[in-house]
Write a structure and sequence with these properties.
This protein is α+β, with helices and mostly antiparallel strands and 112 residues long. It is 31% helix and 21% strand. The chain is built from four helices and five strands. The radius of gyration is 14 Å and the shape is globular.
Length: 112
């Protein structure tokens, strides 16, 4: 993948979830807007949230919500990268975009 495409950033989504790991790879003056409806919800996360009575924002700070790795790529290469990953047997989704703003993660629609 690295030999075929320009990868602008990579984040392994571990402890700290989406909201703490993604900002670490953003350049100054950039934020990420994620669409939580863009990838399938794993039932285990809904169960954890319901049984633990956990706020959606806390879920996104604590868990990866089914996204183990985030790649930042140009919009022009996104489709080809998704196709390449799919051909390799990987589940991959276009989950958001990088825009101007403070280095953070926003969810639109707000956390589901």
């Amino acid at each position: 993948l690295l030999d075929s495409f320009t990868i602008k950033g990579m984040a392994h989504i571990t402890g700290g979830g989406l909201t703490e790991n993604i900002p670490r790879i953003l350049p100054e003056g950039k934020k990420v807007v994620l669409n939580p409806l863009a990838w399938p919800e794993k039932p285990v996360f809904r169960l954890i949230q319901q049984l633990g009575k956990i706020d959606p924002a806390e879920m996104n700070r604590t868990f990866n919500m089914g996204i183990g790795m985030v790649l930042v790529v140009s919009a022009g290469e996104a489709g080809a990268i998704l196709a390449d990953l799919s051909a390799r047997g990987e589940e991959a989704y276009l989950i958001g975009e990088v825009t101007a703003g403070k280095a953070e993660v926003e969810f639109e629609p707000e956390e589901v």
